[in-house]
Amino acid sequence: MKSIQIELKQLNQNLNNMIATENPILYSAAKQLFNAGGKRIRPAIIFLISKLISKQSSILTEQKRLAEITEIIHTASLVHDDIVDNCDTRRGINTVHNVFNNKIAVLAGDFLFAQSSWYLANLNNLNVVKTISKIIIDFAEGEVQQGIKSFDSLISIEEYIEKSFYKTASLIACSCKATTILNKSSKEIQNDFYLYGKHLGLAFQIIDDILDLTGLSQNLGKPAGSDLQNGNLTAPLILALKKKSKLKKMINEEFQFERNISEAIAIIKKTNAIQKAQDIAEEHIQLTIHILKNKYPYSKNKELLSITYYILERIH
Q1: d(CA 271, CA 254)
Q2: Inter-helix orientation angle 258-270/273-295, to 10°
Q3: E strand intervals along the chain
Q4: Which residues pair with 291 in a beta bridge?
Q5: Contact 67, 11 (CB under 8 A)
Q6: Nearest to 282 by CA among 311, 307, 305
Q7: Is 247 exposed, middle or buried (0-12, 13-18, 19+ CB in 10 A)?
Q8: Cα distance between residue 38 and residue 73, in whole Å
Q9: What ranges do the domains of the chain cover?
Q10: Each residue's pLDDT expressed in tens, for the chain with a length of 316 residues
C-alpha cells in the first residue's frame, strides 16, 4: 500500500492527539489499545476508495478524518468486546480491563465512542452522521444477538451471518459508503461501495473465525479457541454440528473441561466444515472483486484488490 503510506503514518499521529484527555487513567486506558498496533485495514480501505473515486486520485481532509473516526469506533468496540468475552490479551498485550478493571474499560470504550461522535458531528454532513451512527446501533445489536445465542447448539448459519454483519461488516460497509458520500458520488457508487464493504466484512469475519480454530495465538491477536470457550458458535462449528452429535453435547455442557476445546477443534477438523466455511468466505470475496473489476479500471484499483486478496490469503 505504497500510495497511502504517508496518510497511514499521519493517521497514527492524529489518533493519539484525538484521544487526548485530561484524565490520565482514561487516556492511558484508551492509548493501551492504540499501542497494541493493528493493521489499520479499515482506514487503508477508506483511503484507497477515496483515491479510486476522485478524479484527481486525491483524499479529502474529511475522508482522512472519517478514517480516524472509523478506527476509533473499531477500537472502542474491541474494548467492550474484550470485557464481554473476558479476553486477557489483545495483539499480544494485556487488555484494558486486565490492566485496569472492568469499570475503567467500560468507561474507556464509552469515552472512545463519545470522541468518535464528536468528530463525526464536526464533519457537518448529516448523511455521513446517519450512515456512521448506524454502525454503533449495529454493534449493540450484534453483541445482544451473540449473547442470546451463546452456547446455543440450534443456531443457524443464517443467524451467524446476520450477527457477523452487525459485529464486523456494518462498520466496513457504512464507512465505505460514507467515503463516497463525502466525495458527492452518485447513489449507484454509494451502493457499490456499501456492498463492497459488506461482503468484505463478512469474508473477514468468517476467515477470522476459521483462524480461531486453525491459527496460532500470536497471529490471532487473542488466544486460539477463545470463540468456543466464550460460547460464540462460528461457521466451522455450526457446519460441523450437522455431522458430529458429540459437538452438540459439548456445547450444551458449555465446554466445561479445558480439554473439551482442543477435542472440539479436533472433531471439527475431521469434517469438511472448515473448507465449507472457507467456500462461503470466498463467495463473499468474489462478490467484492466483481464490484471492483466490473466498474473500475485495474490501474486505479489494484491496491484495493490486493487488500481484498490479502483477507483471503490469511487462511493459506
Answers
A1: 21
A2: 70
A3: 89-90, 93-94
A4: none
A5: yes
A6: 311
A7: buried
A8: 14
A9: 2-313
A10: 778 999 999 998 898 888 777 777 777 767 666 666 667 899 999 999 999 999 899 999 999 999 999 999 998 888 777 676 667 665 556 677 776 777 887 888 888 899 999 999 999 999 999 999 999 999 999 999 999 999 999 999 999 999 999 999 999 999 999 999 999 999 999 999 999 999 999 999 999 999 989 875 545 555 668 889 889 999 999 999 988 889 999 999 998 877 889 899 999 999 999 999 999 999 999 999 999 988 887 777 889 999 988 888 887 6
Q: If you classify domain 2-313 with CATH, what class do you get?
A: mainly alpha
Q: What angle do CA 124, 127, 132 make, to 5 degrees?
A: 90
pTM of the model: 0.91
In terms of phi and psi (left: phi > 0; alpha: psi -120 to 50; beta: otherwise), the region of 150 is beta
98 closest CA partner among 75, 74, 79, 111: 79
How buried is residue 276: exposed, middle or buried, by Cβ count under 10 Å (0-12/13-18/19+)?
A: middle
Residues 155, 233 contacting (CB under 8 angstroms): yes
Strand 89-90 and strand 93-94: pairing?
antiparallel
Q: For residue 235, how many other CB atoms are within 10 A of its CB?
A: 24
